[in-house]
From TrEMBL:
Gene Ontology CC entries for this record: cytoplasm; Holliday junction helicase complex; Holliday junction resolvase complex
InterPro entries given in the database record: DNA_helicase_Holl-junc_RuvA_I (IPR013849), NA-bd_OB-fold (IPR012340), RuvA (IPR000085), RuvA_2-like (IPR010994), RuvA_C (IPR011114), RuvA_C_sf (IPR036267)
Gene name for this UniProt entry: ruvA
Biological process per Gene Ontology, one example term: DNA repair
Species, as recorded: Gymnodinialimonas phycosphaerae
Record domain Holliday junction DNA helicase RuvA C-terminal: where: 179-228
Sequence ranges assigned to domain DNA helicase Holliday junction RuvA type in this UniProt record: 1-62
Region Domain I, residue ranges: 1-64
Domain notes: Has three domains with a flexible linker between the domains II and III and assumes an 'L' shape. Domain III is highly mobile and contacts RuvB.
Full protein name: Holliday junction branch migration complex subunit RuvA
Length: 231
């Protein structure tokens, strides 16, 4: 199983990138968001990968973070959602956006992805809404593991060069958003709220602040207001 590739970007196509790893070129299919976040040709890039194996086909799919990869695996567990549909959803909404839409039962947002019809969007929401809180809670753990790997590898010259030249802005923003949601969700559960209620409140708070950089305390306060009993 190929779980991660680090090499130099040879070129990027409309739905894939070619990564040169030690003289071997790997075709990695990516979402629009991932392709847009890749560095320039010849620069070092690292992608987490999922290998699709069929009788007549082998395809690699690439993700900027383990969190995005986990959402891809969850999306493709839904009947009728193949890798192409999952990439369309992640490319349109991002991992955090897809998680919020599913948690809030927003099939319309899922339907906005190219090639995803209303029935399939509804099926995604119905089948994954109870699983979404667990993946949201994993966000911080997955990204902490990613950061630990980078720190452990940092003393090596090759790894240092990769870290210095690889794309950082988009993955860092994604890690920050998923970390904040995971931490807020954990805090609400520690206060006694159920996973589903807490996840919906955090998702709604994050959705309402989608254009702003929400920190964990901001999400907790906003979610608590949403969870407060109303007269």
């Amino acid at each position: 199983m190929i779980g991660k590739l680090t090499g130099r970007l040879d070129y990027r196509g409309t739905d894939h990138a070619l990564i040169d790893v030690g003289g071997v070129g790997y075709v990695v299919h990516c979402s629009d968001r991932t392709l847009a976040a890749l560095p320039g040709r010849g620069d070092v890039v690292s992608l987490y990968t999922e290998l699709l194996v069929r009788e007549d086909l082998l395809q690699l799919f690439g993700f900027l973070t383990p969190y995005e990869k986990e959402w891809h695996r969850l999306l493709t567990s839904v009947q009728g959602v193949g890798a192409k549909a999952s990439m369309a959803i992640l490319g349109t909404l991002g991992a955090e956006g897809a998680g919020r839409a599913i948690t809030l039962g927003d099939a319309t947002a899922i339907k906005a992805a190219p090639g995803v019809g209303p029935k399939l969007a509804q099926r995604v929401v119905m089948e994954l809404k109870d699983k979404a809180p667990a993946v949201m809670a994993m966000g911080g753990t997955l990204n902490d593991a990613l950061d630990a790997v980078v720190e452990d590898d940092a003393p090596g010259a090759a790894a240092a060069a990769a870290v210095a030249t690889a794309p950082t802005a988009a993955p860092t923003r994604a890690r920050s958003a998923s970390n904040a949601q995971a931490e807020a969700l954990s805090a609400l559960q520690n206060l006694g709220y159920g996973p589903s209620d807490a996840a919906r409140a955090v998702a709604q708070a994050a959705d309402e602040a989608a254009d702003q950089a929400s920190e964990t305390p901001d999400l907790i306060r906003a979610a608590l207001r949403l969870l407060a009993p109303r007269d």
